[in-house]
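For the sake of transparency, this paper describes our internal protein records without simplification. The remainder of this section carries one protein's record, kept here as part of the documentation:
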Amino acid sequence: MQPPKDVVKIAIQMVGAIPQLIDLQQTKPLASVIKDVCDAWSLPNAERYALQYTDGRQTYITESNRGEIKNGSILRLTTSPDQEADRLYSGIQSNNVDVKTDSLKKLASLSQDVTFAQEFINKNGLKQIFYIVEEGNATGEMLAHTLKAFMELMEHDFVSWETLGTDFIKKIVSYINMNAVDASVQQLSLSVLENAVPTSHNFFELVKKEVTLDRLLTHLQVTNAQLQLKAMALLIALLLAATDAERQEMMDYLREKNIRQFIHKNIIHSSEPLADEMAHYLYVLQSVSLNLCEHRMRTSMDPYSKEQRELLQSLRQTAFESESEASAGTFSTERRRSLCAKEFRKLGFMNNSNPAEDLCRAPPGLLALDNMVYFSRHTPNAYSRFVLENSSREDKHECPFARSSIQLTLILCEILHVGEPCSETAQAFYPMFFGQDHFFEELFCICIQLVNKTWKEMRATQEDFDKVLQVVREQITRTLSLKPTSLELFKTRVNALNYSEILKLRQTERLHQEETLAVPVLELRERLKPELLELIRQQRLMHLCEGTLFRKISSRRRQDKLWYCRLSPNHKVLHYGDVEEGVHSPPIESLPEKIPVADMKMLFVGKECPHTKDKSSGKHNKDVLELAFSIVYDMEQYLNFIAPTRYEFCLWTDGLNVLLGKEMMSERMQTDLDVLLSMELKLRLLDLENISIPDTPPPVPKPPSNLNFCYDFSHAEQ
């Protein structure tokens, strides 16, 4: 007979005792359950004991999490969290080095448990950890355990990072600046500062002053991947906490030290695969660097600014220098002004009498002027060729350099997301960004020449301006999607994708669309759908069986903690558990936690999820909300996820909906279905190539007057 829902059958162990098999009544107070267990083993003082999981993170059982206990769970009777906190609090103050080290090691392990952490913090345990660090006597293994315990205790957010003392931060800084320090200590020290910097401007100023960029660059150049990662994390934290002026100063210094080239050569193109966390930091570094253009992008040109007027005049002088010099001494002021207006018109300004008005629109604002000046100064031959070539064309066929530059700058800002906040999870960066300095300007130089090339290929006139820029946008986005590793490779590929190639791609897509809209084809699509949807369902379940590595993300920062979740091969149980960095596909037996699929009730996504509704939910950006989903199971328990990518989000939500007997709803499902339907239709319609398919089936002929045309086998020759 099935046991009641509020009763679970479990085993309880204790060192030196025969295990007990009990029926745990979930409605019975936990203190009473523990007292019954202690009475069975004749143990006095039941209040000094607690139950704890034997596997996984060995979490203490409390009234709040007891609902997660499953049938068949094995628990351990152990010292209660408050008793253990007392013992370790005394142990870390011991004068015996071995006792102190062992206590700190145990503390680092137990501090992962929220119940123990709260008890230890309530006993003012953090103050003792501060003392151990600030005293400076702890080194090596002891110091590593101390910092590890501190990090685990702070993870629970019982104590604000702002409460840390300056002496403590200075001591942590000293470990980073020392050469003869254990790598694990430096990793943990970098992590401490990474968390402290965003919480206090004083900490930011202190760390920025004491941990020089040169020192961080030294840590970035080590072969230890974890130390390299933590150094990059602190660098990113400093950049994000800095003011615009400080950020500009820091980026200028990093440019002087050729950090981009180092990253391009030794991190992106290293022999080791790029970790997800490092990919995220490179994305943030790229985003922060590009966002330095935001101020110029949002600033309109000031016609009264002498500096800006001189930049504008330099464009004209570079293009028409010989003509201007020859006429300067022979023409009157009025004639010279007329000549300048004519030259600005040849440059492609809409308002040639006052070209500054063309740059009043923001965005792209002054960024467009900066790009034009950069192009004219760094590639003067290409600039002169562009301007003079179009000056000699008929008026209606000339490609306006200035107007094209302004619009192209706006397009590049949109494609590269200039001025947009950094995502908390994105990992999409362009490898070629780290190939050289002045990436945005160099990319502009390539693309403005592409505009001129495409203009000629399209035989465009002024009326076709928007069409040409649409084609150029398509050329740029299609080429960037290929992730070229250098600007030279980008230049080669984008120039190969000429107007005729774009037309071919558009025609192919259009024909495919028209072909699939014929009535008989639509009917065939509907017949094929059930079979292909089943194929997608099986693929989703297979992906869940393979499993995925998820990160725990708090409102404060991207966390280092990882956990893995996968579906059992028989599709009946979800297995999950914490894993260490570097573990990519743990065996299902190593994942201690389980959720029977039969207990799953519902799937929540986005804002419906409980982990996006907490007190800090205001800090979750749109990107995280789009990747969040939760499973509701058993007695209103939740398993919360933040998918690493949108692709994983789609596959997991589809797979979970399949397990719940619901329809797959993700956009990826529709994309996969369209691809499969397209392939299947093409295969079935191969014999009908170049044959038009009628919208209605041909009429069925009338039946014959008689059916006597059948061959009679009875008269066959013997």
